[in-house]
Amino acid sequence: MIGFYSDFSNKAENCSVGSPCSNGATSGSFVTGEAEISGVEFQLQTGTRAGEFYLPVSLTYTFTQAEISKDNAASGLKKGEQLKDVPENQMSFRTGMEHPSGWDNYLVATYVDEMCVSAGCNNTATKLDETESLFLVDFISRYALTASADVFLKVDNLFDKQQIVSRLPDGAMANLPRTASLGVSVNF
């Protein structure tokens, strides 16, 4: 488990067409002023044997508080307003079945809270200033062909759950739909 704390005296956002700043600018930077980002993160992992299989289990959780720490007349942001692109809660749970033959299978469940698309969304009257929370499950299967080569199948977003994960630069955008990948991984 770790805790973290960052105290910014003059936090700035870098603006681009693909990631506009909180003031809508698509180039340059936007200074939000004094801000604090703090939180805690932990990881737990264990596993057990079931016959020939090893069953690993791991959980990772992050809590983050990211907000303006002093009123800023220049930006118009007030103390307590949330910073953009920082979810408050994130969690990942992974479990699997590993076999001595080299055939390993995993399910990974991931949760990400909604987050502001521009600083200060917690003080607006519309949900259009934030993304939606997202819960996804991925499946990964690997088989060792040799000591340095694996064949794999990965299915992202197994249950094809669609949520709004971005609203900028050009309106609401959903996460990746169910996507399968098949391939070979070689280490040399």
What can you see in these coordinates?
There is one protein chain. With 188 residues, the chain is an all-beta fold. It has one domain (41-186). Helices cover 0% and strands 56% of the residues. The chain contains no helices and ten strands. The chain has strands at 2-14, 29-50, 53-68, 89-98, 103-112, 134-146, 149-156, 164-166, 173-174, 179-186. The strands form two sheets. An eight-stranded antiparallel β-sheet has the order 1-2-3-4-5-6-7-10, with no helix packed on it. A two-stranded antiparallel sheet has the order 8-9. A hairpin with a 2-residue loop joins strand 2 and strand 3. The mean pLDDT is 93.
- Strand arrangement within the widest β-sheet reads 1-2-3-4-5-6-7-10
User: What is the domain total for the residues?
Assistant: 1
Rg of Cα set: 21 Å
Structural class estimated from helices and strands? mainly beta
Number of E-type strands: 10
Separation, N- and C-terminal Cα atoms: 34 Å
Overall pLDDT metric: 93
- Looking at the structure, what is the overall shape? elongated
Poorly predicted runs of 5 or more residues: none
* Alpha plus pi helix count: 0
Helix-strand sequence: EEEEEEEEEE
